[in-house]
Amino acid sequence: MMKKCNLYRDMLFCGLLLCFSACEKYLEEMPQNKLKPSTTDDYEQLLNKAYLTEQVMPYLDILSDDVELIEANHAMPGADLGDTQLAAYMWRDRHDLTMPNEDIAFEKFYESIFYCNVVLENIRDAKGVELNEENVQRTRKNIEGEAHALRAYSYFYLVNLYAKAYDPATCETEPGIPINNSTSAEDKIYTRNTVLEVYEQIEGDLIESIRLMKENPIVKNEKLKFTALSAKAMLARVYLYMHRWDEAIQCAKEVITENPSIFSLHEYGEILSMENNEVMFWDDETIPGVDYLAKDNSNVLFVNGVSELVPTMAYGRFSTFSVNRDLADQFDPNDVRRYYFMSTYANIYSIQPSTKLTYAKNRYVWLNQVIAIGAGSGYTRVIRTEEMYLILAEAYAHKTDGIVSAISYLNQLRETKFRNGTYELLKASDFNLQSLLEYVWEERRRELCFEGHRWFDLRRTTRPAMERVGYENEVARLRMDDPRYVLQIPQRELSVNPSIGSNPR
């Protein structure tokens, strides 16, 4: 009989609550004498376990064209701190060959799904921690809704990492990833559901989550856990990926109606320029700006996990990886994001002293010394309102009568990112549908850089041919529609359950 797949490896129900630990304060440890969840508090803490607080996809932006390797920046003998992602950077058949622990995303997202399944199967019978049954029932239903949202979030990343991008013409037959919404511990052969089935699962979970949390509001740490609003923002993203433009527009509009906030860079436009963009000049007193992706920002709706970019991108001295100059050149001279998202680092320690661009979106103090992954590293898995404006622009760009609306949303977003008084409005008369769509994709690249969007955007749009150079002038190439736009299933998962099947190469 086929051994049980690593999807739920070593997960015995009675031991689920004995190993709670977390990076965030809201993930409190469960008392050791709790062998089985019974109260709403127990299930809330069990659901906390489903939130992935660690680094799970450090290769995601390395795969994209927003990153380049500069061999001259190699500053120490042997491997540097970025070389664990070298296989991903060179688009090798297995992206995790240089990662010491292989790719853990497959395992971690399925573990998250398992915890969500446990909650969803049992929360309706949970006892309350207060006498007011109406409040207890509201809490039960809100936790249930939150579990639906988090399960959808995990399935979304799994299908976009390990299956082809959603295409309405082929999604009914293309293999996606396994769906398992059971907590059964019996041996089982896991096979793939279709891409369409996975997206229908994601959509259904998000719709139910929004309904349950909206109808049953409770007080929670709103940026670290899913709410009805952040679940709706996630649904807008899903509809965009599914080419369902009208539904994407409706969801995104509802989100910005409730929270239209955009992070304005007008203030920092008076401070930042090429002349003071040298990272080594910053200290606690002089660092310009605040974390662009901080959970305290009013435009941020949801944050999850520590930064996926430390130390590969944020550590200037001992990493050969740099922000791609081509990305930097995409910004207008008056676009403050050029100076807010990346900083110049003069690498005087390398064999051939050189200048590189270091990731700075989280506004680290002393970026050239950031090496440890932790709460101080900031976030990169973020849902925020700017994405909703870009979803609206892209969805309208797909509609024959949508150019004016698309341009309006682009202007609302872009004006806040330029030096005050310098922004020139985009004009609908300067675009056709195709040129507008390409412009929106470029704007997504600028605004959402290093948040895990770019590789997914390349996959779901044009899947272009790309070329890059690694160490010793080794050249790596992706063909247009290259099968390596789909990552390989981790070998340890295939070894346990080969029925999942390798992705083509």
UniProtKB/TrEMBL annotation:
Q: Where in the cell is it found?
A: Cell outer membrane
Q: Cite the CDD domains for this sequence.
A: SusD (cd08977)
User: Which intervals hold domain RagB/SusD?
Assistant: 339-504
Q: What is the lineage of its organism?
A: Bacteria, Pseudomonadati, Bacteroidota, Bacteroidia, Bacteroidales
- Which segments constitute the SusD-like N-terminal domain? 25-240
Record InterPro entries: SusD-like_N, SusD_RagB_dom, TPR-like_helical_dom_sf
Q: What are the alphabetically sorted keywords of the record?
A: Cell outer membrane, Membrane, Signal
The name of this protein is: RagB/SusD family nutrient uptake outer membrane protein
Family, according to the entry, reads as follows:
Belongs to the SusD family.
